[in-house]
Each structure stands twice: as C-alpha cells, then as structure tokens.
Write a structure and sequence with these properties.
Blueprint lengths: L1 H57 L18 H4 L4 H6 L5 H9 L3 H6 L3 E6 L1 H5 L3 H9 L1 H9 L2 E3 L9 E5 L5 E7 L2 E4 L3 E9 L3 E6 L7
Parallel strand pairs: 1-7
Antiparallel strand pairs: 1-2, 3-4, 4-5, 5-6, 6-7
Length: about 220
C-alpha cells in the first residue's frame, strides 16, 4: 500500500510538473504573441486613420457653385486633379469664358507650367456681370487682359484655412486679400468663393462669382 501510494504521488507530481511547465511556456510566449498582435492591430488602425484623413483633406470641395461641376469625366473634380490648371479649367463647363480669356492672353503654357499656385477662377456668371461691350474690349486688349488674369493667381497652394484672413501677392504684382471662415469666403471684400478647394495637378482653385480687378 505504501509503495502504491508512493507511485501514485510520484505520477501526480510528474503530471503537475508537466502542467506547470506547459503553462510556464504559454505564459512566456503569449505576452510576446499578444504584443505582436496588438502592435499589428494598432499599425493597421493608424494606417486606416491616416488614409481617411488624407481622403478627407483631398476631397473637401465646398460651395453652391460646385453643383455645376460634372460628376464624372475630365471636367469632374477627380478628372481636374489629373491635369495642370489651364487644361483642367478647359474641361470644366463652368469656366468656359475664363478659358477663352486665358487663350486670348496666351497664358495657357504659363499657367500649366507653374508650380504650386492658387487660382481665383471667375465663373462664367462672374464675366456676365461685366457689360458686354466692356468685356469684348477687355478680351481684345491682350496687355490689359494679361494684367487682369494674372491678378487672379497667387503663389502657393492656399488651403481654406489660409483664406480666413489672408493677404497674398498676385502674379500681376498687386495684393489680393481674403477673409471668411468655414465654407464662406470672399476675395477683395466682394467676390464670393462659390466652389472652393478644387485641386488640379499644379494648383488649388477657388471659383469666384466676380472678376477681380487690379488697381
């Protein structure tokens, strides 16, 4: 009986020792595995957050005038982002008069080759505010037309936040001022942004409802 009890206790002790060893191995390995899994999940989560942030920043177009931009094709927001600014504008039906003016002033190559600029682009309705006789005279005067159009271009890709209280030097040489917040901005006090933060390959575009005139 004593011998049998001794064997039983020995077998139980061996089983307990094996169990503890196995648990010890698991406790040594699991924290590392759990850490790796947690790290992988955190990395994936950070990548997802970063991707969402980039998407939100790139796609924040705003303003009632954006409804006139085609939903697809080369003239859409996505299509315009692939082309330099003069080419992108030529594909947008809301900017047809501006495109004509840029061609008359021979500024297509100048605008397309510029790097990182912001363009306050007058919509067709903006040009319609100018009496027809005066507009035709402007389009026929290349020097004056160039002055007016280059006044709508400033250096750097200006984000909406930069327009809250901004003063910029235009390509023409004169100053352009902006003010506002959220999704409501004006340029030089009376030209409203009707579609903002439109991206092209080399420019950020704000479509405005009034043609800007340099002093």
């Amino acid at each position: 009986m004593i011998r049998k009890s001794t064997l039983t206790v020995t077998a139980a002790a061996a089983a307990l020792a094996f169990g503890l060893t196995a648990c010890g191995d698991m406790s040594e390995e699991d924290p590392e595995a759990a850490s790796e899994n947690t790290s992988a999940e955190e990395t994936a989560g950070a990548e997802d957050t970063e991707s969402e942030g980039m998407t939100e920043t790139a796609g924040e177009n705003f303003g009632p005038g954006c409804a006139a931009v085609p939903e697809d094709g080369e003239g859409s927001f996505e299509g315009m982002a692939d082309d330099p600014v003069a080419t992108a504008a030529s594909n947008n039906p809301a900017l047809s008069t501006l495109v004509t003016a840029v061609g008359e002033a021979d500024l297509v190559d100048t605008l397309n080759s510029a790097e990182d600029i912001t363009v306050f682009a007058p919509a067709d309705d903006a040009f319609a505010k100018i009496p027809e006789e005066d507009l035709n005279a402007l389009l026929a005067d290349q020097e004056q037309l160039t002055e007016v159009l280059t006044y709508h271009v400033v250096e750097g890709r200006q984000a909406p936040a930069d327009l809250e209280d901004g003063t910029f030097t235009s390509l023409q040489g004169g100053e352009v001022t902006t003010e506002g917040s959220g999704e409501e901005f004006t340029v030089n006090g009376d030209s409203a942004v009707v579609c903002g933060n439109v991206q092209t390959a080399n420019a950020t575009v704000y479509i405005v409802d009034t043609v800007l005139m340099p002093e």
